Structure formats: structure tokens, C-alpha cells
Amino acid sequence: MSKVTCDIAMSLDGFVAGPNQSLANPLGEGAEECLHRWMFEEPERHTAVIEGITAAGAFIMGRNMFGPGRGAWDLDWSGWWGEEPPYHGPVFVLTHHPREPLTMKGGTTFVFVTDGIEAAMAQAREAAGDRDVAVAGGAETVNQYLAAGIIDELRLHVAPVILGRGERLLDNLGNITLEPIGDPAGTSLVAHLTYRVTR
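The chain above was modelled as a monomer; its predicted structure follows.
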């Protein structure tokens, strides 16, 4: 049976992005180089985890994860990932500003959803068919889906760093329970923790 998953890298103090996110620093100051070192410096040791991050049939992300803009769309902007994003499937972007779908190389299509998290999830489930739906981030989007009880499995990739400020995960969620699935895994650069989410 398909489920809703979320893979997200975070610091030990709960931040998934640093302060002052911008075009030059998509994940905020100091975050990119420390939260995702494991993916770039030792990818062969985390092959299954990396493959699992993009294995879903459809994805959901917040506008801040798609790009740095905050108002009306810059229609020349097509995401951080170049001409061929890693998703290779439909990606539903939560936004307050309508935009026509954007089709990229490799099978990724960004669909812009203006009517909330439930509408985005309904569209993602339909697009995914019997495959999983992944909530890709950022922190605010993941927190909204966790608080609504919509994420089934949370996969945290915890880097042994302290960011001190930025975008915090697991904020204002209400009463949720995280039940560990399997044993922790990882290296000196990251601990991979998987939880079943219940309310």
C-alpha cells in the first residue's frame, strides 16, 4: 500500500535551513555545506538512502524550496536543479501565486497549487497511483503536513552540526508520536533515522 513519506536533512538542533536564504544561499547561510556533505562526499556509502529520496511517484514542496522569489513569479525561474531536476515525475509546489505547469527534461513537471496542502496531496496521490507520495520540504511545508497527520513515514538525515538559527523542523506540531522503524544507520557525517508517524 502506498504511503506519504518525507526525507529531510537537519542539524542536531532541528534546523533544515540556515538564516538568510537567498539566490546565493538556497539553504541559508552555512547550511548547504554541512547538512548535505554525506550526499556529495560519500555517496557510495548512502546509495540506498539517496535512491529512496527520489523513489516516490509524486512529490510536494513549498515555494521556498522551489525558488527564492516571494511575490509574483519570475517566469524565467525554473528551480535550483538546472534543466533536468532529480525528481523525474510530477512535483506539486505550494504557492499563493498561480503559474502554468513547467515541464523539464527527464520527466519532471512542476505543478503550482494555490489551494492548500490537502489539494496538493489529492493531486499528488492521483498522479502517484500506487506509488508513494513524498513531501520534499522545506520546514514549513513538512511541519504543516505533520501537524495535519498526513505524513506516514518521516526519514530524518541528521548531520552532527549545530546551526543555531534558521528554518526549524518539528515546530508547533501538536500531539504526534514518532515510532522508530528499523535501526539507525549512517557514518560520521550523518545519522539516518526513520519513524512511523501517528497521532
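The longest strand covers residues 190-198.
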